[in-house]
Design a protein that fits this description.
Blueprint: E1 4-5, H1 16-26, E2 34-36, E3 39-42, H2 48-63, E4 69-70, E5 75-78, E6 84-88, E7 92-95, H3 101-109, E8 114-115, E9 119-125, H4 130-134, H5 136-143, E10 148-153, E11 158-166, E12 176-184
């Protein structure tokens, strides 16, 4: 999901997890903020078209036999020193495994966030601020080593599959995906094995 960033990077010594909890508690409307590249970002209210399309993509994975497809979980990526690098809630994802007792212990220790190593594929569908999904989130997923990033860009009316994450040096903000497949919305989007080719036609209704 796309998101609206706060105007300034978050400069604080508190764990970003606690910062996001404070933002949730201060909001009058139900939100679940994320944390990317040092910024807390509050998601805009997704419209029905966004949610319907994301759900139909997740169903395609499930129908292809990938029963670990899902939506709704939040994932934490960590720096090498163990501190929080990012807190992300993909629009859809494919897990490597169901949550183990260790994963659940991690979630409790980190106040609701699972380890991002659980996911093999993540997907985002842009909303009003598409730059978040095409910039900071793309780099963060690559820095976290997520093998496949599927992006539905409703602004440019294109669908993308990014693979082979690369992190030059120690800077997550310089991470990128070495390979990209791109098609206009409405055309099939090829994904690497074992994933199905995705039908992107649900997003033509915009």
């Amino acid at each position: 999901m796309s998101a609206e960033p706060f105007l300034e990077p978050v400069m604080t010594q508190q764990d970003p997890i606690d910062l996001l909890i404070a933002i949730e508690e201060a909001s009058q409307a139900p939100i679940r903020p994320e944390y990317v590249e040092g910024m807390a970002i509050a998601p805009p209210q997704p419209n029905d078209h966004h949610n319907d399309g994301a759900f139909k993509l997740a169903v395609q994975f499930f129908n292809a036999g990938l029963d670990l497809s899902g939506m709704g979980n939040g994932y934490r990526a960590a720096h090498r020193d163990g501190s929080t690098m990012a807190l992300l809630i993909p629009d859809f994802y494919i897990r490597r495994r169901k949550a183990s007792e260790l994963d659940e212990s991690y979630r409790r220790a980190h106040k609701g966030w699972y380890p991002i190593g659980m996911v093999a594929l993540v997907g985002e569908v842009t909303s009003t601020n598409h730059e978040t999904d095409t910039g900071p989130k793309l780099r963060t997923y690559a820095a976290a080593g997520v093998p496949v990033y599927v992006l539905i860009n409703r602004t440019t009316k294109t669908a993308h599959c990014y693979t082979n994450p690369v992190t030059p040096g120690d800077s997550p903000t310089k991470a990128y995906y070495a390979d990209e497949a791109k098609v206009p919305l409405g055309e099939p989007l090829p994904l690497p094995t074992p994933y199905p080719t995705l039908d992107t036609a649900p997003f033509l209704k915009d």
